[in-house]
Structures are given as C-alpha cells and as structure tokens.
C-alpha cells in the first residue's frame, strides 16, 4: 500500500522520506499537528527544527530554529573525544552549539566533568537542556569558562565554524537559509575561529591534554599548522565513510 505521507515528502525532495515520515509521526500528537509539521517540512524547513531534535551518537539532541544542527560526520569528532576521556577527566566543548558533542561524551563517560560554551544564548539554552549533568556557559569562545579550569582540561573539543565566507552561498538551502551565519562562517579561508581555538588551548589544557578540532580534508593542513603554531604536537585523523576530518593536538607532558 502506498504511504501518502512518504510520497508527499519524496515529491518535495526529501531523500530519506520513509525515515522522515517515521520521525514526523512520532513527533505529532494528532493528525492536525502532523499536517502542520509536514507542511513546514515540505516548505523546506530542516527536519530537525520541525521535530525539535536531532539524532546524534544514539542520543536525541534538542535543537531549535537558527541553531546549528549536529551533523552525522561530527559523530567522528565525538567518538575521538570519548576515546580520549578517562573517568573523572575534565572536558570542554567550545563553540558547542546545542552541546551535542559534550552530551555524547557525558553519556559515554558519566563521571567526567563536562563544560560547554557558546556565544549564542539560544544555543546555550539548548545545551543546558542537553547537558543535565554538565555545565553550559554563555560567552565568546573560552571567555566564560571558570578560571579554575586553567591548566586542568584533559580534552578540549571544538566544532568551530569552518566554511569559507565565499562558499556559504553554495551550501544546501537547509543550512544556508535556516542556520545562523555565525555558526557557519569561518572567515576567508575557513580557519578564522579555529585559529582562535588553537591559540586559547594552551591556557586550558593540562600537561598531556588533547585538543580536537573538526575541519575539512582541504583545510586540514591549515588547521594542523594553527595547532602546531601554539606548541602542540598535531596529527590528522580521517573517517572516509562519514567524510569527517579531525585535527588532534597534544600538549607536551611537561
């Protein structure tokens, strides 16, 4: 039997129409509400905004209009962070958006002390919902972090904006038209915010601590150079299946 909802979504260009139909039905409390949600999706609004969450690393992450939606490829960043996080470790997620990476780390290592920070108050409010056992701070980059964390952070992770300014207009409409530009724009070469993260890292990392920055394959040499410029030994790791690239820096043990 043909599923009218699936066909409607497919006609609107939704590639994964069956999965989207399932999520829309689960989010709707009535047929009237379902019709309203479907109308928003068919009009081009990102599915995650319509249903109010994104699926990320096995979690349901609360999202909202204008806030960066966690990507599948960022799961690789979260997994690498988890692998480096021991029990009772101190973890910081800069440019956290919804706090998705921090939430994934906390879910995997519940004894860790997890902090997240973002300049966008809407994103921080969502991060607080997604991090009931963590701490979300509002402010520019590392400025709002508690001073007591200086030199004590074991894992500092950042999915900072890294789209070159001139390429934002080439992005899919769901990102380009709905997500905040500040969550996408990485400056002329895409590494402007990454360079600020790399410069801040030595203030916070414990000896032997790790810095992880999501980037692109094309930009990885620039990201790595920025990390090395601030005294960290750096390497690039790649997950080809998810088209994910992460630069990992390590602060010398002493």
What is this structure's SSE topology?
Blueprint: H1 4-11, H2 17-27, H3 31-42, H4 47-51, E1 53-56, E2 59-62, H5 74-83, E3 90-94, H6 100-108, E4 113-118, H7 121-130, E5 135-138, E6 153-158, H8 173-178, H9 192-204, E7 205-215, H10 220-229, E8 233-239, E9 244-250
Parallel strand pairs: 3-4, 3-6, 4-5, 6-7
Antiparallel strand pairs: 1-2, 7-9, 8-9
Helix pairs in contact: 1-2, 5-6, 9-10
What does this molecule look like?
- It is a single chain.
- The protein has 254 residues and is of the alpha/beta class.
- The protein is built from ten helices and nine strands.
- It has helices at 4-11, 17-27, 31-42, 47-51, 74-83, 100-108, 121-130, 173-178, 192-204, 220-229, and strands spanning 53-56, 59-62, 90-94, 113-118, 135-138, 153-158, 205-215, 233-239, 244-250.
- It has a seven-stranded mixed sheet with strand order 5-4-3-6-7-9-8, with helices on both faces.
- β8 (233-239) and β9 (244-250) form a beta hairpin.
- It is globular, with a radius of gyration of 19 Å.
- The protein starts with a helix and ends with a strand.
- This is peptide chain release factor N(5)-glutamine methyltransferase.
The tally of beta strands, per DSSP, is 9
Mean pLDDT: 94
**SSE order, as H and E?**
HHHHEEHEHEHEEHHEHEE
Strand content: 15-25%
Low-confidence stretches: none
Count of helical segments? 10
């Amino acid at each position: 039997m043909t599923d009218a909802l699936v066909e409607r979504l497919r006609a609107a260009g939704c590639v994964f129409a069956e999965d989207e139909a399932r999520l829309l039905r689960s989010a709707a409390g009535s047929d009237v509400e379902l019709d309203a949600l479907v109308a928003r999706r068919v009009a081009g609004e990102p599915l995650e905004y319509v249903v109010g969450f994104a699926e990320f690393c096995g979690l349901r992450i609360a999202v909202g209009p204008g806030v960066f939606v966690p990507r599948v490829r960022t799961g690789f960043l979260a997994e690498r962070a988890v692998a480096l996080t021991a029990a009772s470790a101190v973890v910081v997620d800069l440019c956290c958006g919804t706090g998705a990476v921090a939430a994934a780390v906390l879910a995997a290592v519940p004894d860790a002390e997890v902090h997240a920070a973002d300049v966008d108050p809407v994103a921080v409010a969502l991060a607080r919902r997604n991090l009931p056992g963590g701490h979300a701070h509002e402010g520019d980059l590392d400025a709002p972090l508690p001073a007591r964390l200086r030199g004590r952070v074991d894992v500092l992770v950042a999915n900072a904006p890294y789209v070159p300014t001139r390429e934002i207009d080439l992005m899919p409409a769901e990102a380009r038209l709905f997500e905040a530009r500040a969550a996408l724009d990485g400056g002329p070469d895409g590494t402007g915010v990454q360079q600020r993260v790399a410069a801040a890292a030595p203030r916070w990392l414990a000896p032997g601590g790790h810095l992880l920055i999501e980037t692109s394959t094309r930009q990885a040499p620039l990201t790595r150079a920025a990390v090395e410029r601030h005294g960290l030994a750096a390497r690039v790791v790649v997950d080809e299946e998810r088209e994910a690239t992460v630069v990992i820096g390590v602060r010398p043990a002493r």
